[in-house]
Automatic annotation (TrEMBL):
Source organism: Breznakia pachnodae
InterPro entries: HTH_59_Firmicutes_type
Pfam families, per database record: HTH_59 (PF20038)
Name of this protein: Helix-turn-helix domain-containing protein
Domain Helix-turn-helix: 1-59
Amino acid sequence: MIDLSEVLTFSEAAEKWGFSDGNTIRKAVERNKFNPDEIRKSGNVWLTTYPAMVRVFGIPKEEHHVISYHHISELVSKSLFDHKDIDDEIQKILDDISEMIDKGGNVHIIESESKPDNIIMILRRKEDLKTFAIMVKRYMALMKY
């Protein structure tokens, strides 16, 4: 299922990536930088997806923060061996994410530092953070058993 919050017009994408207009993206289309399933023209409007833009142009120029899911899973695993309560550390990470969202920033949850292009999730709203928090807490519960 397609998450419509991940679909961008070329104008929206240009603004997010700091281009003056959509011409840079159209030139990339002409040069076959996008896969055929990553772009579409709907009426007079060109559309693409956030992951496609990241693949072609990298992380957008807007303020964003990156958190590695691998780092979080390492914290949880280490806490099991050290018998340390990890809940406070995870809550601090979630609170930091909440603060970043409140300031208008985006938080990119990447797979790991070695695979920064593998974006697992992009947190833009409090609802996104709630979903991510549930995912982390489920992972923590599974690791305890």
